[in-house]
Amino acid sequence: RGAAAETADLAGRRVVISAGGTREPLDPVRYLGNHSSGKQGYALARTAQARGAEVTLVAANTALPDPAGVRVERVGSAEELRAAMRREAAGADVLVMAAAVADFRPAHTVGQKIKKRDGVEPDPIALVRNADILAELSAERRPGQLVVGFAAETENVLAGGRAKLARKGCDLLVVNEVGGGLAFGTDENEAVILDADGGETPVPLGPKEALADRLWDAVLRRSPTR
Ligand code: CTP
Ligand code: CA
Predict the structure, then answer these.
(1) What is the pLDDT of residues 62-118, one digit of tens each?
(2) Is 97 close to ligand 1, i.e. is its CB under 6 Å away?
(3) Are the beta carbons of 45 and 67 closer than 8 angstroms?
(4) Cβ of 48 less than 6 Å from ligand 1
(5) Average pLDDT rounded to a whole number, residues 124-149
(6) Which atom number of ligand 1 is nearest to the Cα of residue 167?
(7) Cα(102) to centroid of ligand 2, in Å?
């Protein structure tokens, strides 16, 4: 990492980062989920801690070691993630939604394991919308509090990202293009950091730590003092 990691330029800042992917239960043993590994969120937690921040990581279904010096809170579903983030938001200077949140959940969760029956077709799974946690955190943020989102787009990356930033009402949005060689679970990422003031910072393909450090730089540019 660069010289920035040696300076405690995030000292005194309380940052809360969500990581991983939510699981929406169908029955006691099954869920709807996604392939998010949580690696980018954990890289954000490690780098912020190294730069002196007080870090809370809200981890949704990750299988990664707890970063040293970071408080880790585990959640499962989008609703649990939402409750944890809203609770943590009260004392936070920076909120980062790096988790992949399910847009939909099953309309009904049953208490017993779903059984198959010979000659009977399965019921379709009805879905309902989950709350948009990033938009909610942005709408409810205190003066001086920064809210950061992530977005993976397969086309029109910059225009789509700009529209998404406006829709969510957040301060910064990290947009990366997916669908090519880059996939979930890798150790590298390439992205553009969009600032609500119109700024645009491209980050070349590199370790997720490097992207994380560039994001903390962008946070400090937008909020130089606390
Ligand atoms: N997000 C969230 N709550 C949701 C869905 C998404 O907080 N219910 C957050 C993600 O954590 C991410 C950002 O919103 O930081 C963008 O997620 P993305 O899936 O790209 O955006 P959506 O608004 O869900 O749009 P799309 O229809 O393209 O999936
Ligand atoms: Ca989505």
Answers:
(1) 999 999 999 999 999 999 999 999 999 999 999 999 999 999 999 999 999 999 999
(2) yes
(3) yes
(4) no
(5) 97
(6) 23
(7) 6
Q: What is the pTM of this model?
A: 0.95
Give the residue, by CA position, lying nearest to ligand 1 atom 14: 134
Distance CA 142, CA 138 (A): 9
Distance (Å, rounded) from C-alpha 156 to C-alpha 168?
Answer: 18
Cβ neighbours of residue 172 closer than 8 Å, sequence gap 6 or more: 146, 147, 148, 149, 165, 193, 194, 195, 196, 215, 218, 219, 222
3-class secondary-structure state, position 62: coil
C-alpha of residue 132 to centroid of ligand 1, in Å: 7
For residues 68 and 72, what is the distance between their CA atoms, to the nearest angstrom? Answer: 10
For residue range 2-55, what is the model confidence (pLDDT) as tens digits? 554 568 999 999 999 999 999 999 999 999 999 999 999 999 999 999 999 999
ipTM: 0.99
Out of 34, 61, 156, 189, pick the active-site residue: 34
150 is in an annotated binding site: yes
Residue 112 Cα to ligand 1 midpoint, Å, equals 31
